[in-house]
Amino acid sequence: MRTSIATVCLSGTLEEKIHACAEAGFDGIEIFEQDLLVSPRSPEQIRMLADELGLSLDLYQPFRDFEGVTEDLLEANLYRAEAKFKLMNLLGIGTVLLCTNVATATIDDDELAAAQLQRLADLAARYSVRIAYEALAWGKYVNDFEHAWRIADLVDRPNFGTCLDSFHILSRNWDPSGIEKIPAEKIFFVQLADAPRMSMDVLSWSRHHRVFPGEGDFALAQFMGHLVRAGYNGPVSLEIFNDIFRQTDEKRTAVDAMRSLIWLEEQTHLHLQDTEGPGFSYPMELATLPKVDDPTGFNFTEVKAEHTGAVQELLYQLGFGYAGRHRTKPVQLWTQGQARVVINEQQARNLEPSIAALGFDVENPVVAASRAVQLKAQPVPRQSQADEEVLQAVSAPDSTEVFLCEASADGTAAWTREFTPESGAPEHAAGDPTAELITRVDHVNLSQPWQHYDEAVLFYESTLSLARQPSTEVPSPLGLVRSQVMRTEDRGIRLALNVAPMALEHPTAASSYPAHVAFACTDLIAVARRALARGLDFLPVPANYYADLQARFRLDEQLLDTLQRYNLLYDRDEDGEFLHFYTATVGNVFFEVVERRGGYDGYGAPNTPVRLAAQYERSRREQD
Ligand SMILES: O=C(O)c1ccc(O)c(O)c1
Ligand SMILES: [Mg+2]
Fold first, then answer.
1. Ligand positioned closest to the Cα atom of 241
2. Could you list which residues have their CB under 5 Å from ion ligand 2?
3. Fewer CB atoms near the end CB (10 Å): N or C, the chain?
4. Does residue 267 share a domain with residue 406?
5. pTM of the predicted model as reported, rounded to 2 decimal places
6. What pLDDT, in 10s, does the model give residues 78-130?
7. Residue 302 sits in the same domain as residue 252
8. 366 lies in which domain range?
């Protein structure tokens, strides 16, 4: 598949954008007119730069508001067009994108539009330019790709075809299977964009909220399937108008973009295999990736800290046992059931405790790592001694290290043999191996910087096959927190990504959205009782909360008393019940313990605002 990207997707100058696209590995680019107009570089210099970097210039765009106009306007439009065709000759670009008229059209007549477009096509032919006519979703008379194609068919010129843009088609819920009725040689260009489903006017939606494939809600593998079945084999180009991508590092965005196309190529291949069978052949070559099964669980979580005492104490209070220190590194292992927490003091100078790494159980770590690297994940350089387990790791967009660990049938991990309990046990090392009430990690919740959120979603979706659940918004004293759960089908992995509000000016902001690990247990009240006896600092829950709980759920007095005494939170739905509590925060991390009863599948979402407000109250008090 030939990959391309519109310069409008990225921040920076045209030159910076071109470099970023080349570095990320694109085959070509679309030059967005505005980027050229403001560039101090001549068209010839741009052409040379792209050429040196091995990028083809696939499209010049957009040319706007041409057809359906009065004769005097048409004259002016032809004059404007001719200047652009000359410019395209200097740039060495063969195809121009023409949007359907959104503003100046006054005559709603396909025959007339086609006749005017014939004049444009004949003028373009003198400059060897092809015209790709694209229906914008808010076009005045033409806003549907099949309508634009009918007009292109009437124009009936070899240098006049259509451009299909997934946003304009899927945002309006036009049936994309109509693509298969368009002759492949008349599809001059394809633009892809994903977007979250939103109820707002389509122009604002398109200009501000497009995202890369895999980051939104559109069924793009199916969309690509129609193009492939139509016989299309031209460039597949990303055209993403997005407020965040326009202001963040263009090199990083270009890599995110490339990842989305690599992943989509694979998804399209899999979709076509599903619908057409393995023997189906088509002109477009679709690259595939190493296939991996879903990860089955968390192998470990790693907390990095200069001072480890506070984290050790929390783990002890939760019933974890100290399993020892690494043979060669300043790293501790704490375990309970199949929950393993590594506390790492390496390169942790001045570092408050924070989650630095997550280990995922996978069938084959080498294959899983190779898939991640093909998806442009950065490998984490690691030094291991000859007799140590070799662990594969890549960096997630928020710099959390993602370890791909070999899953074992009994839930143990081979690398734990490198830890020896004898050498200098810390205080509280006794643990409580007779009462392993905590069984495993239920979920991990990571705070994402707002500018890397979409990238993180695509990263976890493409490299680890985590599926996105509907996202929610949770009020906190500092603003709305967006919460996005990603999980595997069997719930072996549940990962919640939280995006803190963008404008964090409050002094406590930085510490207001710590990450956390939630442990699953078999008896929450017993865990809480033990923890209280060991002096755990629970996150306090206000009395108002319990009054509301009683009003909503009519809990029996005794349960309500117990919940309130231990600062436990509660939720219930048709499938079951959920009990949980939070520890105080140390540095940038805290822990949660949860008990799922029956088939409860959520995360106690109604309780999250209570937690965020309680954490805010605490951090404010600590500041004072
Ligand atoms: O929003 C626009 O104007 C616009 C311009 C060019 C395109 O290809 C497009 O999809 C939208
Ligand atoms: Mg477009």
1. 1
2. 165, 191, 239
3. C
4. no
5. 0.95
6. 999 999 999 999 999 999 999 999 999 999 999 999 999 999 999 999 999 99
7. no
8. 297-623
